[in-house]
Automatic annotation (TrEMBL):
Gene3D superfamilies with a match to the protein in the record: 1.10.1750.10, 3.10.20.30, [2Fe-2S]-binding domain, P-loop containing nucleotide triphosphate hydrolases, Spore Coat Polysaccharide Biosynthesis Protein SpsA, Chain A
SMART domains: AAA (SM00382), Bac_DnaA_C (SM00760)
Protein's UniProt name: DnaA protein
Organism: Symbiodinium pilosum (Dinoflagellate)
Keyword set includes Glycoprotein: no
Amino acid sequence: MGLTANTRDCLRRFLTSRGSIADTNGKPLRPGGTQEVVKDDAAAEMPQEDADDDRRFASTLRNVVGEKRHKAWFEGRVGFDLSSNDTLVVSAGSTLECDCLRKHFKAELKQACRAAGLGARSIEFVVDAAVAPTPARQDRPAEPALKAAPAPKAPPKPSEAPGFLVSDSNREAAKLAELIAAGSPAPSPVVLWGRGGTGKTHLLRAIADGFRSRHRRKRVVRLTAEEFTSGFVEAVHGRTLASFRGRCRGVDLLLIDDIHFLLGKQKTLEELQYTLDTLAAQGADVVLTSDRSPAELRRMSGELLSRLGAGVAVEIAPPDHSLKSRLIERFAQQSGVRLEPAAVRIIASGLIGGAWEIRGVVNKLGLSSRLLDLDICEKAVGRAIDDMNRVSTPSVGVKQIQEAVCSVFGVETGVIKSKRRTKSATEPRMLAMWLSRKYTQSAWSEIGDQFGNRSHSTVISACRRMDELLGSEASVHVAGRRRAICSRPASRSVTLRPMASFRSFAIVPAAGRSCRMGRQKLLLPFAGRPLIEHTLQAWTASAVERVVVVVRHGESTLRSLCEDFPVDVACVESSPDMRATIEAGLDFLQSTWQPSNHDAWLTAPADLPTLSSGLVNTLVDAYEPKDPAVWVPESSGRRGHPVLLPWAAADSVQSLPSGAGLDQLLTEAEVRTLSVSGDDLPRDIDTPEDYRQLEKPMTDRHSIKVNGQTHAVTTSSDRPLLDVLREDLGLTGTKYGCGEGECGACTVLIDGVATRSCITSVEEVADASVETIEGLAGDELHPVQQAFIDQRAMQCGYCVPGQVMNAVGLLREKPHATEAEIVEAMNGNLCRCCNYRNLRAAILQATR
Ligand code: FES
Ligand code: FES
């Protein structure tokens, strides 16, 4: 480029007046000018002694710092101004470079000045864009013209990064990563979130590598949250904040791994927020990873969350079955472990977790086979899976318990947090509170807070009630049917299933609609509801933990009928046979729920109108994970009965020869039958006449014995006994207090045991004898009633019937109960008038 005479004159004058600016080779550099101009014109005009100083200083510096470091840090990228007698001005292209030179070379620069005979000088660092390395400086020497340059290698895509496998569970994230690595327009910031072992860090590294290899001149910084935090803290303490910010903000792509570790570090989060703002203003891309979605990073400030919300969050789901299988094969190959395809299948089906857990299991199997010379048999694989699942299963929280309980009871979580006192709300609430106390570290009040801000005493009361039921061997299924919680005292049998040992699933084939009666059967009303609704109610009220309904693609009516239930819907192609339908359900479960070896699955068609939750529960109760077998109800000749199979049978279904149906499986398997009682016996309906026979009112006739008298009541089976006593039998002495089994106002005696009638269903007292306050006195008052009068144990009197009945129940069991025993027994009967002293005195009097 040519310069005008005037410009050359200005340059000359400038150089003459200010001395020279030379690079480390002694070649002069000038701000704002091109390299050639400065070389040609300015060097020619430099005073000889200045040029000597520059050359001497350059060669001395090379000796002092060493050839290698000189080349890396100074050559072609740093300028020196020696024109002042007491200061050496060092120019570098960025703040970051100046900071580095100051930190690492200040002493050596001073030493070089002294060694070059320039005296002791102070060192000043200045940023000068003109001395930033230009692309031309960075280029390697050109290849000889005749030598053909090798064809540029296509940079790898993130999804092709070594070891990164793509499946449905991470496809979206992998595609987005490719977009960012290619430098194509993408939303920013991107948050890739998912559990540990889903490949977030792997993908982040692949994005960084892909971006670097495509855009060599752009700056990429990849940090862990810990590096970001410690870098920021060090920068604050070392007063190098500008350098830290230059590093994080002067980039084209910033990647930070595991930002959830920043939660609670307020200053660091603020720094991250400002960094995001700066990068957004510059149009730079940001990719972050987290173990939870942005919505769950609640402890971040609203501003930062809104910054994250402006971009896009993509979940990386835990590996699905196919990805797990490929990971297992890869890890096994890497570790030299020989695994049979069956073992791979078992691990992929049974192991909970991601890549880390898979690697752990493969390592364990490899180690035991090498060290102990053991075969990798099915048992060994099962053991390794169980060990790993036990270690890696995350601890449960109150929220998860609420969701699990609500899904079993078929209610929204809002119901158990609401003020509702119906049985359908109180039972799941009570159970969820009890489980929360048992399986989490939460305090009483914390649990109460999460159940609609209830007080700690409400939680204590609910837990006590559950403990009573368990302590007295009441039948309680953690994942079980509703009425089992409030079972009648007379029939107390405990089957509290250990939660982790065995899970049960249902696969409901509803792919099409049966037309056996000439009309589409699934949509016929049965007892006022379509058949499928009836069946789904039975499934969801049973102990089955997860229900998968298999429908055909395009079966919108069936799908919409499923929407009201907490069930999953899997799809099959049109015209499937029963086996194809079951296989679709199995595939769905394998890919979403990851059953383990101990689990079991049931199947029964959705058009089975007489399916009852009792029948399902009977089957589930019969299952023994340690001795798995196929279980069918006794009347096995009928169609459509639920059949329970060990999870291992899923493999057998998939490997049935073509053309063979599920029946063949039952002929080969070890089948056990169990008897079922009349109501639970499933009946098939094939004709309109069958159907009419079955369509009966939902109410039942109940015969109950109250105060020695038998009454016939027609009502629904789960109606509270309290309502029947008060409304149907007119026995209003028993009071309604809380309706949740907490205040004791509704206490009656059932077979002589004090029981809360508000949470006892009429069905549960079918064979029992009920006593209410009306039946207590004969010709004379009962001694407890008399004692209450003597001791003035009544103020408003509302709680008294319940107090009396509870006291009577206690004294029948312990006629000479001590004061401590009285206090303990009466603890759950509340008196809003706080007349406790007189109440206690009355009961003590009755013991004499
Ligand atoms: S009404 Fe309160 S315990 Fe029954
Ligand atoms: S006497 Fe009033 S509630 Fe007990």
